[in-house]
Amino acid sequence: SDLRQMLATKSVENIQFLPFLTTDVNNLSWLGYGCLKQDWTLITVNTVGAALQTLFVLVYLYYSPAKRPVLLRSLLLLAVLVAGYCYFTLLIPDAGTRLGHLGLFCSVFTISMYLSPLADLAKIVRSKSTRCLSFPLTVTTFLASTSWTLYGLQLHDPYIMVPNMPGIITSVLRFWLFWRYPPGPDRPHRPLHA
Fold first, then answer.
1. pLDDT at site 117
2. Is the pTM of this model over 0.85?
3. What contacts 144, CB < 8 A, 6 or more positions away?
4. What is the pLDDT at residue 190?
5. One-character DSSP codes across the chain
6. Is-contact 50 44, C-beta < 8 A?
7. Whole-angstrom distance, CA of residue 88 vs CA of residue 97
8. What is the pLDDT of residue 104?
9. Residue 183's Cα: distance from chain center in Å?
């Protein structure tokens, strides 16, 4: 719905960028983990996720009036991703050790992705409005983090299970913020479209 809003209004007003950028890097990192582990669920989901998040980042950059900060953040996280790729492929020859290090790297990025929408927490409390938060993204985050936690539990993979638990917690916190500080009549909650 945020992408649809940007295309309709040709504006990025009241839409956060950082959650989508960190999600894109997160998808690309987990795609590498899935390839190394040969887990087709991780590969498929994160390939689709990375493609969609990259589309969002490009549309956001196109409609953003302040392109320089958006581009700098994107390039910074891309540099981190490239440095991580070089580290994991060139400096760690053992596949088991590489899988453990990459799992830890992905876990840290997943936690940062789930915490990034809370960057505006002080602004939300001060303004008593959740206009800058996306309700559909909150619902999706809750469902995704719950699903991945259960998937990690089923596989006995702590790298998948543990970092997704903060997603559940931060989603519940954002649901509370939406209840406590409604976004107002200019941006009501829209239902998720299938």
1. 67
2. no
3. 164, 167
4. 47
5. -HHHHHHHHT--TT--SHHHHHHHHHHHHHHHHHHHHT-HHHHHHHHHHHHHHHHHHHHHHHH-S-HHHHHHHHHHHHHHHHHHHHIIIII---HHHHHHHHHHHHHHHHHHHHHGGGGGHHHHHHHT--TTS-HHHHHHHHHHHHHHHHHHHHHT-HHHHHHHHHHHHHHHHHHHHHHHS---TTS---PPP-
6. no
7. 9
8. 93
9. 21
* Statement to judge: residues 28 and 76 lie in one domain: yes
Say whether both 84 and 114 belong to one domain.
Answer: no
Q: Is residue 189 part of a domain?
A: no
Whether 103 shows a pLDDT value over 70: the answer reads yes
Give a yes or no: residue 194 inside a domain. no
pLDDT digits (tens, 9 = 90+) for 70-80: 889 889 988 98
Average the pLDDT over each of 24-28, 47-51, 117-121, 185-189 and give the range with the smallest value. 185-189
Give me the residue label for tokens 């894109």: 24
